[in-house]
Amino acid sequence: MTQPYRPGPGATSPAALARAVEHLHAHPQTPVAVTELAQVAGVTPRALRYAFRTHHGTTPLGYHRQVRLDAAHRDLLTADPPRATPSPRSPPAGASPAPDVSPATSGGATAAPRPSP
Question: Where is the sequence biased in composition, kind Low complexity (predicted)?
C-alpha cells in the first residue's frame, strides 16, 4: 500500500514563495529581513531560503537586491536626462554619504593598509 505524498518539514508551497516574491516587488525600497519575509510567506526562514535557492538560484536578500536594481534601472530609463546622472558629490538615493578619509582629515596617517588575513 502506498502512502500519499506529504511534504517534509521544510517544504514551501508555490503559493508561499509567490507571497514572498510579491511582497519584495511591492516594496522594493523597503529594507526587509529574512525572518520578516518568512512571516509574510507563512514559512520558516530556512524553508524560505531553500525555496529561493531552488526556484530562483539565489537567496531572498539576493533576489531583493536584484528587484531593487531593476527598479533603479527603470527609474533611470524614465528619468529626465539632465537629472538622471547624479552629481559627483551626491550619494545615491537612500545611501549615506561616504566619509572623507583623506590624510588631511584623518590625522595625517599615511601608513599602508594591512593585508587581510
Answer: 92-104
| Distance, CA of 14 to CA of 16 (rounded, Å) | 5
The vertex-93 CA angle with 88 and 99, nearest 5°, equals: 55
With vertex at residue 9, the alpha carbon angle to CA 5 and CA 14, rounded to the nearest 5 degrees, is 70
- Give dist(CA 16, CA 12) in Å, integer: 6
Nearest Cα neighbor of 65 from 12, 28, 106 is 28
**What is the pTM for the complete model shown?**
0.61
Quote the DSSP letter at residue 112: P
Cell numbers that stand for 28 in this block: 522594493
Domain boundaries, the chain: 14-80
Residue with the three cell numbers 531553500: 50
Distance separating alpha carbons of residues 72 and 21, to the nearest angstrom: 18
Locate 16 and state its grid cell: 508561499
* 79-105 confidence digits (pLDDT tens): 877 665 655 555 555 565 555 555 555
Q: Which amino acid is at 111?
A: A
